[in-house]
Amino acid sequence: MSPRAGHPGHPAHTLAFVESPVQLLNVLEWAHAHGLRGTAEQARPVVPAQARPTVPARAGRAGPAGEPAPPAGAQLTLVVLSPTDPMTRGQLRRMADLARDEGYRVRWEEARGGTTAPFHTIGGLAGSLRRAERIVMGDPFSRYVQLLLTITRARDLVVVDDGTATMEFVAQLARGERLVRWHRKGGRPGARDLLFAPVSSSARRRLTPSARRRVEVFSSMPVTEIPDGVTVTANDFTWTRARFGPPRITKGADLVGTSLVETGVVDGDRYLTAVRDLAKAHGATRYFAHRRESAEKLHRLAVETGLEIVRPDLPLELIARRGPIGRTVLSFPSTVVHTLPLALAGTGVRVAVCDIDPTWLTDTASPRAQGFLSGVTGTARDIHRLTAISPA
Fold first, then answer.
1. What DSSP string describes 128-159?
2. What torsion, rounded to 10 degrees, do the Cα atoms 80, 289, 162, 20 define?
3. What is the pLDDT of residues 203-247, one digit of tens each?
4. Of 101, 143, 169, 341, whose CB is crowded by the most CB atoms within 10 A?
5. Using CB atoms within 10 A of its CB, is residue 172 exposed (0-12), middle (13-18) or buried (19+)?
6. Residue 123 in contact with residue 151, Cβ under 8 Å?
């Protein structure tokens, strides 16, 4: 898909919607891979990767709703549909600053700041949605994004990684199924699901390639069931490696946390036991928390395992690339078992993955949970030659 597609004589304008730091990172990777440039007026001096400090949080809004059309020459506008979670907001602020460093326009929307916020956000974005020639999204399962898709006239749609959910999205699109997150699949639709069903169905139709619409998936995840007409482009984290590192590597091991307890997939007590046993068996001293992990759970982990809890201020791919990072990184099934080997390519850091034991699953976990998680680790071991480890 050419970054120059659009009206003759000027580059196509792209509107990207992100709701998480990882989505924003992957939009930057996509833009870099496709040669999109920021405007000279917006670009800020880029500090060399090894000297770059932690990006400070920026107070206030990064862009008011209802802004005018992008300046001439602007090829990408990033729209942050801000969540309410403080950790996610903090990382998004820092990622937004990195996007500005690249010269891209960033528009911050308090999309969930009260009952009327969605109406103000959608109303303020309607004009931009109709003008955009390409839409990039990080989460096709998002109801917010699905609603925005009903407004756009763009002929080019791009889905960038939102973690392991990308694998499920592509598979569901190939099979013509309704769009449902993997950890909820198998359960009965709730009242809100039924009410939103027409919008979700419309979004799935728009994300299906046709003579009038091109669809690209930009992913570092293994995609096996590719729908007819969908272009799949590999994300190898070229931008990340160019901007950060190489990292300083420590002698010990680091452990990567997961939000599987918070999503109701894994039992909290079983997870704590597994983390304690992993840390003891492999000499891990630091625990990189997932941004969705609860403070109560992390406090308990610190007390009962002795691990140093680290709350990253950027996506882990950037934190690891910036360093310091352990010579061995231990992880449960998650996106990072596919992304860290790419971000850390050539550094000598070893990524190892621990399968989720079926006995750790909760009674309410989706029937597909075990198979899906096993698929994540299995493909990572096959593609990146990762080491399989056990808590024992």
1. HHHH-SEEEES-TT-HHHHHHHTT---SEEEE
2. 0
3. 788 888 888 899 999 999 887 778 889 999 999 999 999 999 899
4. 169
5. buried
6. no
Report the amino acid identity of residue 259: S
Buried b (16+ CB within 10 A) or exposed e, 55-83: beeeeeebbebeeeebeeebbbbbbbbbb
Token pair recorded at residue 376 = 């994540």
Residues 180-204: b if buried by 16+ CB within 10 A, e if exposed: bebbebeeeeeeeeeebeeebeebb
Sheet holding 214-219, edge to edge: 105-109, 76-81, 14-18, 134-137, 156-160, 214-219, 230-234
- Structure pTM? 0.83
Please state, in angstroms and rounded to a whole number, the distance separating the CA atoms of residues 22 and 221.
13
| Residue 50 near residue 245, CB atoms below 8 Å | yes
DSSP for 294-314, written as a single string = -HHHHHHHHHHH-PEEE--SS
User: CA angle 352-357-363, nearest 5°?
Assistant: 140
CA angle 88, 292, 200 (to 5 degrees): 80
Amino acid, single-letter form, for residue 299: H
Write the CB contacts of 330 (distance below 8 Å, at least 6 apart in sequence): 253, 254, 255, 256, 278, 282, 284, 352, 353, 354, 389
The amino acid at residue 158 is V
Distance of CA 387 to the CA centre of its chain: 24
In which region does residue 231 sit, left (phi positive, over 0), alpha (psi from -120 to 50) or beta (all else)? beta
Task: Strand 308-310: give its sheet, edge to edge.
Answer: 308-310, 284-288, 249-256, 325-331, 350-354, 387-389
Residue that the structure tokens 């930009």 belong to: 218
Burial 135-145 (b: 16+ CB within 10 A, else e): bbbbbbbbbbb
As a whole number of angstroms, the distance between CA 39 and CA 179 comes to 36
Per DSSP, the three-state class of 81 is strand
CB 159 within 8 A of CB 208: no
**Phi, psi of 197, deg, nearest 5:** -55, -45
Structure tokens at 94: 């820092």
d(CA 336, CA 241): 15
Which residues, 6 or more positions from 166, have their beta carbon under 8 angstroms from its beta carbon? 159, 217, 219, 221, 223
Amino acid letter, residue 371? G
